[in-house]
Amino acid sequence: MAIDNNIVFLNGQFIPISEAKISPMDRGFLFGDGIYEVVPSYATRLVGFGLHIERMQNGLKAIGIKLNMGVDDWRNIAQNLIEKNGKGNLGLYFHVSRGADVKRFHAYPEHIQPTVFAYAFDIPAAPIADKKSVKQYKVTSTEDLRWKRCQIKSTSLLGNVMHFQQGQEAGVHETILYNQRNELTEASACNVFIVKNEVVITPRLDNQLLPGITRNMLLDILRKDGTLQVQERTISMSEVRTADELWLTSSSKEIAPVVELDGKHVGKGNVGNIWLLAQSLYAANKHHY
Ligand SMILES: Cc1ncc(COP(=O)(O)O)c(C=O)c1O
């Protein structure tokens, strides 16, 4: 799909992206004052849609944006965008900002309409549970220097962008983050899991990480399957560095195996068997969410 043919949704209308305009006084532009969501769809099938919309509603509530749109309204926008943009493998991006004010002033204005934007973009086919063909990730690590409200999927992403860029400059795919106590939080655009002695472990949810929908679905799928033990708990960076396997999860990556951390092999330096089981289970069950 060429980007200039892209039909997007802006404030109630489906229009070509070239015609989509917002005010420079929009608080999304001025302050990053908004909430966003990304939902994957494969050949028109949306994955985890209700969970994504629920997280977006939680985010809007947390920052006091009142928007009278329910899950069916969002589903309607998603289906229209999929229909109008080729029905392939598409990510749906939803963005609600507090709206356009008449001046730049920090306090929340009383009577402005939120700006609602959505568009579809191509995503790769869902990863196949195959150790040979799966993309192998390399990551670096650094202290998490973002804010203390990382559970909110805010459009203010400069902290994440700067951490992601550190990875780019180090020639790797992602940057995993740890707090001042040397405990794993997440990555700049993914959640993180480790595997040790066949136990799958991920940090518990708090204000230091996004409650990832892929994380949530994977934990649920693994618990229902029951083959592997699963833990949500504090993980020290020394545990990360001595893990048998390390994974990144996100809606577009699903479960991505990491083979190198800070220039050193993770486990044996190849894609692990527990990843294979987890990705197979995820692929078999993701459409139930
Ligand atoms: C900081 C951060 N953590 C985790 C995730 C993974 O979330 P999800 O699985 O809902 O895509 C993302 C996804 O964009 C993210 O930006």
Uncertain stretches = none
Kindly give the count of domains: 2
CATH superfamily of the largest domain: D-amino Acid Aminotransferase, subunit A, domain 2
- Stated plainly, the CATH topology of the largest domain is called D-amino Acid Aminotransferase, Chain A, domain 2
**Mean pLDDT figure:** 96
CATH architecture identity of the largest domain: Alpha-Beta Barrel
The total of helices stands at 7
Indicate the CATH class of the largest domain: Alpha Beta
Helix content: 25-40%
Specify the biggest β-sheet. 9 strands, mixed
What this model shows, in words?
The protein is an alpha+beta fold. It folds into two domains: 3-122, Aminotransferase class 4, branched-chain amino acid transferase, N-terminal domain (D-amino Acid Aminotransferase, Chain A, domain 1, 2-Layer Sandwich); 137-288, D-amino Acid Aminotransferase, subunit A, domain 2 (D-amino Acid Aminotransferase, Chain A, domain 2, Alpha-Beta Barrel). The protein has helices spanning 27-31, 49-62, 71-84, 158-169, 213-225, 237-241, 273-285; strands spanning 7-10, 13-16, 34-42, 45-46, 90-97, 115-122, 137-143, 174-178, 184-187, 191-196, 199-202, 229-232, 245-250, 254-261, 264-265. The strands form two sheets. Strands 7, 8, 9, 10, 11, 12, 13, 14 and 15 form a nine-stranded mixed beta sheet that branches. A hairpin with a 2-residue loop joins β14 (254-261) and β15. α5 (213-225) packs across α7 (273-285). The model has no long low-confidence stretch (mean pLDDT 96). Residues 38, 160, 186, 189-191, 210, 212-215, 249-251 line the site of pyridoxal-5'-phosphate.
